[in-house]
Amino acid sequence: MPQGTHTVELPVNIETVWDFVQDMNKWAPLVPGYIDHKILNERQSTWSFNGDLGFMKKLVNLKVDIKEWKEPTQVTFNLTGISDNFIGGGYFLAEAIDQNRTKMSGHLDITAKGMMASIINQVLASFVPKTTTELTNAIAAKIVEINKQG
Q1: Other CB atoms within 10 Å distance of the CB of residue 45
Q2: Were 88 and a residue from 63, 64, 79, 130 both cysteine, which residue would form a disulfide, CB within 3.0 to 4.6 Å?
Q3: Is the peptide bond preceding residue 129 cis, with omega within 30 degrees of 0?
Q4: CA distance 96 to 14
């Protein structure tokens, strides 16, 4: 199962992190290769992005199902391929270090299914950790940017 986890420390309180990650509209556009997303309901959305697999770019469409909103510490979600045969999931986890600092971790796991699964999973083994790091860093940077202005 290709997966990645990345942790960053933010100079903001845990409520500030929660305020951002609890709204998919705020972080969906930060997915590397983002094209668009549509909110279907409070717990479901569809996302389109270009996955850069190194040797090629691939249009990826997926459905995101929020499994749990656990304020102020965790958002857990499942991923289902619409355009491709894969499943996965992920989470954002926030831990207060003190009143003004928060540790935030992002995690993704994506597994291809079907006839080409073994080949695709080899590619995903490097793609998923890289994407997890890029997305977590982009969310962290956006949270810091927004809170410097306010």
Answers
A1: 19
A2: 79
A3: no
A4: 6
Residue 124 in contact with residue 2, Cβ under 8 Å? yes
Q: What is the pLDDT of residues 124-133, one digit of tens each?
A: 999 999 999 9
Q: Give the residue among 137, 80, 139, 66 at the shortest CA–CA distance from 110.
A: 80
Give which of 143, 146, 53 is closest to 94, Cα–Cα.
143
pLDDT band at 83 (very low <50, low <70, confident <90, very high): confident
pLDDT tens profile 50-76: 987 766 788 889 999 999 999 999 999
Distance (Å, rounded) from C-alpha 53 to C-alpha 55? 6
Question: Rounded to an integer, what distance in angstroms lies between the CA atom of residue 31 and that of residue 16?
Answer: 20
Alpha carbon 29 to its chain centroid, in Å, reads: 10
pLDDT over 70, % of the chain? 97
Amino acid identity, residue 144? Answer: V
Q: Which helix (H) or strand (E) holds 70?
A: strand 57-70
For residue 109, give both structure tokens: 């796991």
* CA-only gyration radius of the chain, Å: 15
